[in-house]
Amino acid sequence: MTSSALLTDLYQLTMLAGYLEQGMAERPASFDLYFRTPPYRGSYAIFAGLEPALDYLENLRFTEEDLAYLQTLGLFKTRFLDFLRHFRFRGQVIAPPEGTAVFADTPLLSVQGSLAEAQFVETALLNIINFQTLVATKAARIQQAAGDATVLEFGLRRAQGPDGALSVARAACVGGVLCTSNVLAGKNLGLPLRGTHAHSWVMAFGDELAAFRAYASTFPDQCVLLVDTYDSLQSGVPNAIIVARELREAGHELQGIRLDSGDLAYLSRKAREMFDEAGFPQVRIVASNELDEFVIDSIREEGGRVDIYGVGTKLASCAGEGGGALGGVYKLVECDGQPRLKVTGDPEKSTLPGRKKLYRATGTDGRFLQDVVALAADDHLQPGQRVYAPHNPLQSRRLPEDCRLDELRRPVMEAGRRLHAPEPLDQLARRCHQQLEQLPEGCLRLINPHRYKVSISGDLSDLRSQLIERALKEKP
Amino acid sequence: MTSSALLTDLYQLTMLAGYLEQGMAERPASFDLYFRTPPYRGSYAIFAGLEPALDYLENLRFTEEDLAYLQTLGLFKTRFLDFLRHFRFRGQVIAPPEGTAVFADTPLLSVQGSLAEAQFVETALLNIINFQTLVATKAARIQQAAGDATVLEFGLRRAQGPDGALSVARAACVGGVLCTSNVLAGKNLGLPLRGTHAHSWVMAFGDELAAFRAYASTFPDQCVLLVDTYDSLQSGVPNAIIVARELREAGHELQGIRLDSGDLAYLSRKAREMFDEAGFPQVRIVASNELDEFVIDSIREEGGRVDIYGVGTKLASCAGEGGGALGGVYKLVECDGQPRLKVTGDPEKSTLPGRKKLYRATGTDGRFLQDVVALAADDHLQPGQRVYAPHNPLQSRRLPEDCRLDELRRPVMEAGRRLHAPEPLDQLARRCHQQLEQLPEGCLRLINPHRYKVSISGDLSDLRSQLIERALKEKP
User: Number of C-alpha atoms within 13 angstroms, CB side, residue B440?
Assistant: First the structure.
């Protein structure tokens, strides 16, 4: 992955130059990274991208070549370029572990450091966390829809460029999709690879049975045949059964077939019957062709007999209503020890001021009840306490007396160095799976899911009200 | 951009191993890359990604590290890994120049070479061409909607990872969006950079006027102020006018303001009035906030006075109906000198067999009339001739007697080496602009555009009919 200090918006550099000139660069500051709406019209997102983000922060530095380029822009003074030469990220980062289910209006990453360093890293952190979280969430939705069936990612040909595809493969793992067709992702991330042949293989032979026999002779123990080049049930499956018999006579077993067009629910049921009747119950059925969580859900709903779903375009492009991009933002919440607030006409777009803790309330049945955002200095949060809606102090509710409150985040970087070794990707996938099992009923529904509750503590609600009042008084 | 031979789907390698084992690897083959539906429910796409694709082809080779990894998969024989060690792309590529308006069912890239090399490059070519073409098309739509106003790309924070963002910046240029906020893209591609400050700048000062003054003192000649942290018309614009006066007294001029929320058509008109009345007609108005071609079109429709549109998320994520991904495919059309065909139940998904030429018919008024796909060996295509619908030989029409026919593509690579130096990006952008001006009326409409005609020659139509007939006869 490209990791250059220049991978940023120009305005981060102009602001940095401004802070330096104003003598403000070293003031302590704290930023929160969060999103306002969960993606895909769902109830949750799966937090991902932390390790690549920490990599970026640890390695952030301007090369002489970078500085020479910035000089050519005619915007910056020599003093500023000297400052950049020694610029490092030496701040603190607080975050939940990757694979955690997270919700709107709760701080994911919180970054503390000098105003200069904590501001500058905004663009890269958003780039990494927004995209990885968006893909991990899509993968989790797809894997949920597929139930116990395996999902295989093969979005490389439709991904946003070569490295976009590598990011997709990693984030898909966090969401539970651990197999890929992308050989480079397999190598770099240690993922299991899957893949057989394309229609062109059959077309190159001209004769489907000859093509199947040739493939089986090359890979007698890993043979999966694509059966829809001409007609799946009339030609593809019968030819695959001939090859399955020939393989068995030679001491091998056909592994599977792939259906890539037509009515996948119907075709998979029919193909299953044909293989079972022919004595090949071990042959697994792979389905592909513009699959997403909704199509997979309907295939299962209609009794489709698919063992493996191959998902490409819709996963790599994070397709679907409310997909495409996660609108994560990065907002200043404290500067020079003073809480900061952005007030706008739209209350939903106002920020939550101050450094924060994030609690998750869990019921006695082990299900998550709600998340509560509190101030870092706020020690009072207890079961039974009254908490408030994030954007309206008139809406409040009590936390149940018997709930458990856990902090969801921990420091992951201090003084610019990461505190923990990266977790293996399959561990992140297991965490994601576990988290989804603990969501309140209805949160996993694909359409109009139950909206998971997020609240803020009384102290945070009061602080915001005071700051808004003060801002209004200062106005003409 | 990552350029590894392993950036491919596993099945390219298994097929390659199969072709080698079957003694078919060196057979001559020809593939066409094309799409079936234009993106964004529009009428056209802007072809982009050729240079990165040629870079990939020229540099394709397996390193010893790649081969060592492939050996660990337990799939491949030593003979195959030795074959890969010397594997290069030495084929021919035919393509239109980047920035050309292209249409469904016409071959964009055609690749000829050995079956092994021409098949293997499928995944990477699709990855590069699909995404670049998708972004270039979105950029062209947005720039068209913006008319003479400048469009600035700042999608980095919402792009598909770091390199996704670099691909976006390049492809956006092909579509006519040449300014970016992405500093690394500016450096690597030589693009003009734009950017000012964020809301956090104002929040760090707490006082908007103080924040504006500080920014103006740092960049007195490049000062653009973000006016919506509190209230654009009540606070932001009046404060910006104070700073504009102070700058002028000191011998400088305020360059502009940026509106980032609210009713941009209304706010831009009001802000324009306020600056004009205060004697600052030179102040340019930048608008941003989830802009795309539709929003920009409606702002202009309602008399908005925006000079510069900043477009981020919707461009970088290729948002919109029919966006997200371009469904480009890569199909075998000839093998061993024999035309090849994929027949499916769905005629729209059948392929066009044989090696091809692509003609564009232009009317006497300089407007494009239609594109015609012909066989490479087909020398007869002339004005006045009868041509056929791509998927139905019963639909035909005559080319006008007075049209001009030009071949749209040329060889760009022979024996694995590119034939021409890369064109500058602004030249590609100019070509795109020129091409859009020559489209038939109605093709640029954002909603339900006129569908540009694509036809196939009589020889090609006949060849396909014969091959389908033959395929049907061979079936049981």
Answer: 17
B234 lies in the same domain as B272? yes
Using the beta-carbon criterion (under 8 Å), do B198 and A11 form an inter-chain contact?
yes
Neighbours of A79 (CB within 10 A): 10
- Could you say which residues from 387 to 446 on chain B have a Cβ atom under 8 Å away from some Cβ of chain A? none
Cβ contact A342–B203 (<8 Å): yes
Helix axes B10-21, A208-218, angle to 10 degrees: 100
Whether the Cβ atoms of residue B387 and residue B403 lie closer than 8 Å to each other = no
- Name residue, tokens 């055609």: B110
Is the minimum CB–CB distance between B229 and chain A shorter than 8 Å? yes
Residues A149 and A131 in one domain: no
ipTM score of complex: 0.91
Instruction: Please give the residue range of the domain that contains residue B109.
Output: 10-136+323-474
Measured distance CA(B228)–CA(A389) in Å, rounded: 25
How far, in Å, are A267, B215, B282, B299, B305 from residue B271 at the CA level?
61, 20, 12, 14, 9
Question: pLDDT tens across A255-306, in order?
Answer: 999 999 999 999 999 999 999 999 999 999 999 999 999 999 999 999 999 9
Nearest alpha-carbon partner for B276 in B285, B289, B288, B286: B285
**What is the mean predicted confidence (pLDDT) over A342-353?**
76
Say yes or no to pLDDT of A433 above 60: yes
A220 and A252, same domain (yes or no): yes
Residue A353 forms part of a structural domain: yes
Chosen from A1, A11, A346 to mutate, greatest number of chain B CBs within 10 A: A11
Q: In a 3-state reduction of DSSP, which class is residue A135?
A: helix
Question: Of the candidates B305, B333, B361, which is a domain's last residue?
Answer: B305
CA distance B122 to chain A (A): 8
* Max Cα distance, chain A (Å): 90
Averaged pLDDT of chain A: 94
A217 touches chain B (CB under 8 A): yes
Is residue B271 included in any domain, yes or no? yes
Q: Worst-scoring range by mean pLDDT, A102-106, B129-133, B193-197?
A: B193-197
Strands B150-153 and B179-180: parallel
| Displacement of CA A374 from its chain's centroid (Å) | 25
Does A463 reside within a domain?
A: yes
SS3 call for B387: strand
| CATH number assigned to the domain comprising residue B252 | 3.20.20.70
pLDDT of residue A303: 97
Distance CA B353, CA B341 (A): 5
B344 in contact with A, Cβ within 8 Å: yes
Evaluate whether A14 touches B189 at the Cβ level (below 8 Å). no
Interface probe with B: pick from A4, A6, A9, most Cβ of B within 10 Å: A9
Paired residues of A392 in beta bridges: A389
Please determine, for residue A123, whether its predicted confidence score (pLDDT) is greater than 60.
yes
Which residue on chain A is closest to B27 by alpha carbon?
Answer: A204
- Give all strands (DSSP E) within B234-323, no chain letters: 256-259, 284-287, 308-311
% pLDDT > 70, chain A: 98
- Look up residue B215 and give its two tokens: 């920014």
Out of A281, A316, A351, a domain closes at A316
Which one of B156, B161, B235 has the shortest CB-CB distance to A9? Answer: B156
Question: For residue B97, what are its two tokens?
Answer: 């120049």
Contacts of A15 in chain B (CB under 8 A): 197-198, 200-201
Q: Does B178 touch chain A (CB under 8 A)?
A: no
pTM for this entry: 0.94
Tokens found for residue A210: 């000859």
Q: Which residues pair with B257 in a beta bridge?
A: B225, B285
Residues 6+ positions from A373 with CB-CB distance below 8 Å: A105, A106, A107, A352, A356, A357, A358, A359, A390, A454, A455, A456, A457, A460
Q: How many Å apart are CA A310 and CA A162, to the nearest integer? A: 19
